[in-house]
């Protein structure tokens, strides 16, 4: 049975039980939040925020407010995370509060579009910056970029499948590396300020608008800044692997979100000590332009830093998105094979392989960046529905034990911001938002055919049983909370049953 990283549980004399192991301490929890937030966003979004605000001063205000909104959302998720202490984040909370269909639609859009697309974009950003020194005077070749992205993704999938400890150590190391890189940018920025190079930051220049931003422009600026803050809720996806979640979940949030907000704001201040707004807007790689202007022979540090940052981001997204698939399968909303974990490593290998495969397909499809618009809309829709769930849960179960209980003004303020973004997104880009809604609604017939329809024909049940059998053999996996599944003891109709019948062994 399980050894190495494994964790065995069971009654004396009974079968051994295998479960996800609690190996994520406070430091690793902070690394997961910071590592998932700080990816490619801080090197891409400054241009978009500045473009829509029309001034340096308003752009900096947007960055601070973006951190504040992320903090409000995180506090709401902290209450939900310790009240419903299950891995799966938004999906688990929405399923618990609103029922199976709502949870499945969130899961469907996340597995189909949100996380594979985000992973693909981060992986392609990684490969472009790694290849930039090899192709200094042109854009890296399409095939070279795709191949390197796939190699990186496959490597990290193998690491995450081999050991939770390896995956969290990679997250710790690369999070420290990216913070050091951003600390270098901030330090150089302060040196510039001490030298008197802060003309663009003086109030008269900072609020010198070259255009008057409309409410729609401000909404788009918030979306650009919020893209850089996305990932603040990812620790909730691995709650069951967190040591003492009732203490460490809120602590990790209170440490990580203010730190990221500080880093983002002062990184942007540093950019403006070296570049005018026009130079920043004309740059396709802000950090690289900053390095070329101020670091001289050490300008190579910037593309290397971006590569390290995105490598850690890929690892974090793989780690958390695979747990979402795992949680969905455990609830009976995905094939039961995805709710199985490796008998020795205690890692959800089938779920990891599905996340990897979906990302590879998105990479091969081509125009990944167009999908970002759909992802942003779907992402914020999910955030809002989840936080509405917090208010509904207060009403439905007022006496449930809540180790953390936030003031209702916090979710109300977040939802006001959320409604502002969605309304003006629908007004500004109705086609993009419409397609996003269609993607979500395609999950309705899938839910009724795959999950709600219990009495499936025997041929369908035999097919599910056969696929589960072969999956177990190939991945050497077992059910969580259960013994090793034998070939004649596999789920048939049970593969689409609720958690009570799926997650435990006979």
Automatic annotation (TrEMBL):
Polar residues composition bias: residue spans: 493-506
Transmembrane segments: 24-44, 56-77, 98-124, 144-161, 173-194, 214-232, 253-274, 294-318, 339-365, 371-394, 406-428, 434-453
Location(s) in or outside the cell: Membrane
UniProt-listed Pfam families: AA_permease_2
Keywords: Membrane, Transmembrane, Transmembrane helix
Presence of the UniProt keyword Transport in the record: no
Mode of membrane association: Multi-pass membrane protein
Region (Disordered): 486-506
UniProt name for this protein: Asc-type amino acid transporter 1
């Amino acid at each position: 049975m399980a050894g190495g990283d494994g964790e065995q549980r069971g009654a004396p004399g009974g079968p051994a039980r295998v479960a996800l192991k609690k190996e994520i301490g406070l430091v690793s929890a902070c690394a997961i939040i910071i590592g998932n937030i700080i990816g490619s966003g801080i090197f891409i979004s400054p241009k978009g925020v500045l473009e829509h605000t029309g001034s340096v001063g308003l752009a900096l205000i947007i960055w601070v407010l973006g951190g504040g909104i992320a903090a409000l959302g995180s506090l709401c998720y902290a209450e939900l995370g310790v009240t419903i202490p299950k891995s799966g984040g938004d999906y688990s909370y929405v399923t618990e509060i609103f029922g199976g269909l709502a949870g499945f639609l969130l899961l469907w859009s996340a597995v189909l579009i949100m996380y594979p697309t985000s992973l693909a974009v981060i992986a392609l950003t990684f490969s472009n910056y790694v290849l930039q020194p090899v192709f200094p005077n042109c854009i890296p070749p399409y095939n070279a970029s795709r191949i390197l992205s796939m190699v990186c993704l496959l490597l990290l999938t193998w690491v995450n499948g081999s050991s939770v400890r390896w995956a969290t150590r990679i997250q710790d190391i690369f999070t420290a590396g990216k913070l050091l890189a951003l600390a270098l940018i901030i330090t150089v920025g302060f040196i510039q300020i001490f030298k008197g190079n802060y003309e663009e930051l003086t109030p008269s220049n900072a609020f010198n608008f070259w255009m008057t931003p409309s409410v729609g422009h401000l909404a788009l600026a918030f979306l650009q800044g919020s893209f850089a803050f996305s990932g603040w809720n990812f620790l909730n996806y691995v709650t069951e692997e967190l040591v003492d979640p009732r203490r460490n979940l809120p602590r990790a949030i209170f440490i990580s979100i203010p730190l990221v907000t500080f880093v983002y704001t002062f990184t942007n201040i540093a950019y403006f000590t070296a570049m005018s707004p026009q130079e920043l807007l004309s740059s396709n790689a802000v950090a690289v332009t900053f390095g070329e202007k101020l670091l001289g022979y050490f300008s190579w540090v910037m593309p290397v830093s971006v590569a390290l940052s995105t490598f850690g981001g890929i690892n974090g997204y793989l780690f958390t998105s695979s747990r979402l698939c795992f949680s969905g399968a455990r609830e009976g909303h995905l094939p039961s094979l995805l709710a199985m974990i490796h008998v020795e490593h205690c890692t959800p290998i089938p779920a990891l392989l599905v996340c990897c495969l979906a990302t590879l397909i998105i990479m091969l499809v081509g125009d990944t960046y167009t999908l970002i618009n759909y992802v942003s809309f779907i992402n914020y829709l999910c955030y809002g529905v989840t936080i509405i769930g917090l208010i509904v849960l207060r009403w439905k179960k007022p006496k449930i034990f809540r180790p953390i209980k936030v003031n209702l003004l916090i979710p109300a303020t977040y939802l006001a911001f959320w409604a502002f973004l969605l309304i003006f997104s629908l007004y500004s880009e109705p086609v993009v938002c419409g397609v996003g809604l269609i993607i979500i609604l395609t999950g309705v017939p899938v839910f009724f055919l795959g999950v709600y329809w219990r009495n499936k024909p025997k041929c369908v049940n035999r097919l599910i049983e056969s696929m589960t059998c072969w999956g177990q053999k190939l991945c050497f996996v077992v059910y969580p909370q259960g013994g090793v599944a034998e070939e004649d003891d596999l789920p048939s109709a049970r593969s689409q049953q609720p958690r009570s019948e799926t997650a435990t062994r006979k």
